Amino acid sequence: MFVLLVVFLFIHLASFAQLQLPKLISNGMVLQRNTAIRIWGWDTVGEKISLRFNQKTYKTQTDAQGYWQFTLPAMPAGGPFEMDIADRHTKLTIKDILIGEVWLCSGQSNMVHQLNIHDVTYAKDIAEANNPAIRQFLVPVNTSLQAPQKDHSTGQWKAALKEEVRPFSAVAYFFAQKLYEQYHVPVGIINASVGGTPIEAWTSEEGLGAFPSIQTLIQQNKDTAYVNNTNRKNAAYVRSLPQPNDQGLNQQWYAPAYQPKNWRTIAIPGYWEDQGIRDLNGIVWYRKEIDIPASMVGKPAKVFLGRIVDADELYINGKKIGNTTYQYPQRRYAVGSDVLKEGKNLFVVRVTNTAGKGGFVPDKPYCIFAEKDTVDLKGYWQYKVGAVFQKPTEMPPPAINATMQPTGLYNGMIAHAHNYAIKGICWYQGESNASQPKQYAQYLPALINDWRKQWQQPLLPFLYVQLPGFMEYDYLPAESNWAILRESQAKALALPQTAMVVALDLGEWNDIHPDNKKSVGERLALAARKIAYNENLVHAGPLFESATVEGNKLVLQFSNIGGGLISKDGEALSEFAIAGKDKKFVWAKALIQHNKVIVWSDAISNPLYVRYAWADNPVNPNLSNQEGLPAAPFRTDE
After folding, report:
1. Per-residue pLDDT tens for 97-127?
2. Average of per-residue pLDDT across 606-612
3. Kindly report the CA angle at 309 between 307 and 313, in degrees rounded to 5?
4. 3-state SS assignment for residue 525
5. CB 446 within 8 A of CB 410
6. Contact of 609 with 635, CB cutoff 8 Å
7. Given phi > 0 = left and psi -120 to 50 = alpha, else beta, which region is 628?
8. Global pTM value
9. Cis peptide leading into 291, omega within 30 of 0?
């Protein structure tokens, strides 16, 4: 009898757990104002479901798959509200609901980058964050190569309150902040972004229908046995490689007791290939005794080691302080109050590099500081090679990383949100597609059309960020994949209800993740005010329209000139290059006349083609409108 009672209670309690909601529909959620709102979930087949919200009650029943959905009428901004959802056994209450503006913010690392990563630049913004009406739902990284997923395992809405704002996407936060300042309604951000990912991974199988080779890959990846077998071969190959025998670890070169012999001099910052070490992939150790004043002793400190290519470990006085496993993050390590001593302190950095130039990236901060005291770490250090990696004699079998595969991230991170009403989309991605930039001219419109179809909004506002300047400066006209990708991005403006944020002036030559996230977010907000909210304002910089040959000059016309064309820094216009029929470009002179740009060169008597800011990282692209928005780069010789 007791056993039967236990079984009965188990079955009875299990029935109470059948009512399920997607993670998006949870405490603190922001719902889209002035549009129909869908609330959905799952339960047992045939179960009756009721929903009570804003003093109204709605009823429905689950379908043959156990799915249920309510469509609530459009409502104005407001809140907080509560919502009750119940079946015959269970009532779920969702609390602290706001109605306002909801934006999906997606892309790769520059959309991922949290305020926490940029907490030096935005320390004041973090400290002053106190707006419970700005909220973010951070979609966890999830993939599927088989089919769209109905939900994910974790996720919750968080408000922009003090330290809670740190995990917010920096770009999305400043975007939301500007919208809130303008409209004074709640702003919800759904942040679905993953670093280092291509646009194809964010597009559905249907959205990629026009690309036969990608369709073949999608079908191939649906075979889990094939994927698992491929990855097993890759893992076996990696395990078969000889492990580096690092003399530095074996002999504890980081220890104060170690007596260095035959170490050489090298400068920090700088790459070792530029300082006498030829074509080395391996492990290099750096060490230096740093004088620390008594005023810094007994206090917590922080070390800034700029950026390091690729991985690093920092030791101070023999104690491991921190490490980073890949090249892109800025190195900022906390030092405990018991580590430093007055006088000489041994600093040792172990750097591992597997490809390209290894070492310390120039033009970044290298120092240690505590309260008001700062000690510079730049200068000459001693170095010694701990291990040399042998070049592989054969290509390793490829691995299949679902975050890099077509549909992988769409299925795992986007598909679940289609029912959730949004105002628009902010997209910041492209770096991972720069090796095949022309294809992006097809991929970006495919993504835009795909997502609009999935949300059943043919004119869903789509705002995107053009790639900023990055990499070394070219002082002669040159070819550039990044320039071609920017051109491909600009072509998507042919679609209605789109806007492109030009960020050429917001990049850093030595950092693919530039610090200036606020200007990007604020320019996105400006674009939203025009495209999504129909304000009468100038939302973008000059956009090339046409070129006319007049003698030995080219006369250029632009749209989005706003209050008029200007040189942003007051200097002569730069970054214009022209060519004749041979398409051999030379730098040109340029000036503004009657809101047109006149371009010429004494070296070209019959100009036919013109380029502007055509480089990975143009030196000084200064054409702008009076509203301070930079001109988009372009060429006429495609």
Report:
1. 999 999 999 999 999 999 999 999 999 999 9
2. 97
3. 75
4. helix
5. no
6. yes
7. left
8. 0.93
9. no
